[in-house]
């Protein structure tokens, strides 16, 4: 059994596929801090992929502290890293094998080697990032091999990553999220193919 | 098509399995520097796993420089890293998708993130380390799930990793390899199971 942090995006979908192909019973988890129901897209995608999915409601203070780090630094890296680490720390008390969709070329969120060692040893868990050894081009090839992708036009659909709730929370406290987050295209998995390769 | 550096050991066998499950046509490559025919075990294991295998004969000067680094430092890390990088550089001129069995918890051989970026960009290749996101315990579980393993008693069988030829070459030039390499158990894959999970 492995519990995979799942945003409904291409990367965590590919991570789910790899773990399944390795014989794991994969359960998808989307975290939520009670700001908005940003887990809906992940829920839909989990259904398309055929995996069990659950929402884990975590303490809003994790998100608040993450946002305050983003405001302090003026860019999201530290804040998002903080949130991801806190999420892993919290879930590690409950789940013995935890995974995420972090890729080799991701800058954030990313744990250092020492942080990973520390997490696994303190909590006596296994932490798996199945995409960590794959570069940008390889992941693009694999995603095209296994998934049908649709681009999400900015603002038309709420994605299920940390950014969605961070943005909402920032607006609530009168901050403009566009000052902190670069414009970037998002996409979602709308179908699978070659699943049985 | 992916070309995987293959020693016949558990890690590169698991890397081969993952790549195959991801739909790649996997070819196994064992390098040889002309010191001894250390590729025999890899050849046998490739047959057990059902993969195509070939031996790539590379310039002996790569091994010689690696050994001189080991002698200079008094331990094998730099020398083995040097050899692995040179092997990747050389094969990258010939193969467009290269892989190896490096694990998250391996100290050597290991490329830094910048070295990986540089290799991929200069040579216009993809470099994949499928095990990089998996820790020691997870890899142990996966190996037990898919392979039947036999321990190799020290010195009874020549393994197909760099160490075998390094040790032979050291003896040829009058050095004692046991002064530089720690005693460690080696093992080989003698069968597969649950292949179709």
Automatic annotation (TrEMBL), chains A, B:
Pfam families hit by this protein: DUF7411
What Gene3D superfamilies does this protein map onto? HUPs
Any one GO MF term held by the record is: methyltransferase activity
Write the record's keywords in alphabetical order, separated by commas: Methyltransferase, Transferase
Q: Which GO terms describe its biological process?
A: methylation
Q: Which InterPro entries match?
A: DUF7411 (IPR055834), Rossmann-like_a/b/a_fold (IPR014729)
Q: Does the keyword Methyltransferase apply?
A: yes
The protein's name: Subunit of tRNA(5-methylaminomethyl-2-thiouridylate) methyltransferase
Q: Which organism is it from?
A: Methanocaldococcus infernus (strain DSM 11812 / JCM 15783 / ME)
Q: Which taxonomic lineage is given here?
A: Archaea, Methanobacteriati, Methanobacteriota, Methanomada group, Methanococci
